């Protein structure tokens, strides 16, 4: 992802933003030009909680260039009912299971070249019960 695109997408990255349909009330993620349910274009930005449970997951053993690996990728079912695919962090592979409660955190995704240009994005980590609200 190049720099202008990164800056343009910054807000959605840092607070995981979806869309709410002004016509039927559906929430969707990622953003689209029309509502997936009713095709209305009356869409408003809608912040997502970042909390959900693991719907499915897989371990990636041969990561793309620029990524540290191996790592875990999960499809997370958010509280709002939408699914997000992202890396897992702060968890060992044997600790991951379907239905595990997770929350979004902002972490370094990759590093470019010798100047260390960093790209941040969201990952998910296990939600600790005592911190749940
Ligand atoms: Zn709609």
List the helices and strands and how they pair.
Elements: H1 3-8, H2 10-15, E1 17-21, E2 27-28, E3 43-47, E4 51-60, E5 71-78, E6 83-87, E7 101-112, E8 117-126
Antiparallel strand pairs: 1-2, 1-3, 4-5, 4-7, 5-6, 7-8
The protein binds zinc ion.
Residues 21, 23-24, 26, 35, 37-38, 40 line the site of zinc ion.
Please explain how this structure is put together.
The protein is mainly beta. The protein has one domain (3-126). The chain contains two helices and eight strands; from the N terminus they run ααββββββββ. It has helices spanning 3-8, 10-15, and strands at residues 17-21, 27-28, 43-47, 51-60, 71-78, 83-87, 101-112, 117-126. Strands 6-5-4-7-8 form a five-stranded antiparallel beta sheet, with no helix packed on it. It is globular. The mean pLDDT is 82. Zinc ion (ZN) binds next to loops. The site of zinc ion has 8 residues, from loops.
Short description:
By secondary structure, the chain is mainly β.
List keywords for this structure.
2 helices; five-stranded antiparallel β-sheet; 8 strands; three-stranded antiparallel β-sheet; 43% strand; globular; binds zinc ion; mainly beta; 133 residues
